[in-house]
Amino acid sequence: MMRPVPFCLALAVLTAPAGLAAQQPDARATVAVGTASARRGQVAYGAIRVPAGVDSATDLPIAVVNGTRPGPVVALVAGSHGTEYTSIVALTRIIGQLDPRTISGTVIVAPLLNVASFTQMTVHLNPVDGKGMNGQYPGDPAGTQTQRALAAVADQVVKPADVVIDLHGGDLDEDLRPYSYWFRGGQPAQDSASRALALAFGLDHIIVRDFDLGDAASRRNLGGYAMSLGKTVLVAEAGRSGTVEPEDLRLLTDGVLNVLGGLRMIDRAVRPVEHPVWLDASTRLAADSAGMFFAMVGRGATVAAGAVLGYTTDYLGRRTGEVRSPTAGVVTFIRGVPSMWKGATLAVIGRVLVEVPPYRKPGS
Ligand SMILES: [Zn+2]
User: Fold this and answer.
1) Which of 229, 262, 295 is the last residue before a domain boundary?
2) Residues 77 and 186 reside in one and the same domain
């Protein structure tokens, strides 16, 4: 067994020096997010109420755990994809594991952004307006439900936070191997803080993804948007195919606690991942037509270039093709159901990076 080592994360955004903070009134004596308002030492439960506009209203469930002592503000978000159950359930479980009397700082928990996706079991999108709830930041208070909800999340959850953790899981159609992302925007201090967060979280496969934050398209997902505001960001995924497995849940809840331990917000020894498998997971295989897909390898499989990943048929069971991996690597996820539409993701292959290259602006 390896011994935990003392470990502390640095934030990209520095909070006020302690001496200065001591002379000023406590800005977080009460933290209110939507109807959840917590004084120091309290947990509050409530919702961000998004009123009806061009379409129906929605309530986003929110918990605020406001620690007795000052410290960083961490936002925990899940459920932009409402059928990625493991990540959603993980955050509901985390709330009860955080004792505000012993925490330094504040944790804002938003476990289910896309309530309509959850209740109607609609994958990937908000069925109310057909939009993706991880692709419309910074939202629009005058837009459709997704845009109105995300405008509220941007203002009330993302902006007050120093650290934003966005949890996902394999969706109903995704057989996924747990991994986290190291998002890089080319700002050295922010990128190194995010790297430390990913290592502290504890998943041993980490996908390296570079963003051009000057490009609005890079700021439409929660991670890119939060990075553009200077936040330290971590995105992690565990869970698959609609199941909520205890082991996948544990990976996410332990990961969150590890980050809070690394930030010295809770008393927890953290052992960062020593030898992560860094991946470039930009190889996505998409279906060129509708039909049925049958996987022949499982999540996490290591494959050679040209390896058969699965096969496709028409709706009468006649074979229409084979799906081969264009590169050697790790199957980070593979389609877990037969449903296949033109453009559907069949698999994503992560090429193992022997050495992590320096940041490179996409398209340059
Ligand atoms: Zn997701």
Assistant:
1) 262
2) yes
**Ion ligand 1: residue ranges with CB closer than 5 A:** 81, 84, 168
C-alpha 130/C-alpha 353 separation (Å) is 36
CA of 84 to the centre of ligand 1 (A): 6
With a cut of 90, say whether residue 15 has pLDDT above it. no
CA 169 / ligand 1 centre spacing (Å): 6
Is residue 19 within 8 A of residue 47, CB to CB? The reply is no
Distance 63 CA to ligand 1 centre (A): 21
Same domain, 89 and 180: yes
Looking at the structure, do residues 258 and 284 belong to the same domain, yes or no?
Answer: no
Residue entry with tokens 């650290």: 163
Residue 298: CB atoms within 10 A of its CB come to: 11
Question: What spacing in Å lies between the alpha carbon of 275 and ligand 1's midpoint?
Answer: 26
Q: How far is the CA of 4 from the centre of ligand 1 (A)?
A: 31
Q: Ligand 1 center to residue 125 CA distance, Å?
A: 10
Give the Cα separation of 259 and 272 in Å (integer).
10
Strands 339-340 and 232-237: unpaired
What distance in angstroms lies between residue 85's CA and the mean position of ligand 1's atoms? 10
> Residue 332's domain is classified under what CATH number?
2.40.50.100
How many domains does the chain divide into? 2
Taking 90 as the threshold, does the pLDDT of residue 16 lie above it? no
Same domain flag for 229 and 302: no
For the stretch 71-121, pLDDT in tens is 999 999 999 999 999 999 999 999 999 999 999 999 999 999 999 999 999
Pair 120, 247 in one domain? yes
Distance 238 CA to ligand 1 centre (A): 10
CA of 213 from ligand 1 middle (Å) equals 21
Give the ranges where 111-269 is alpha helix by DSSP (H): 115-120, 145-153, 188-201, 222-228, 246-262
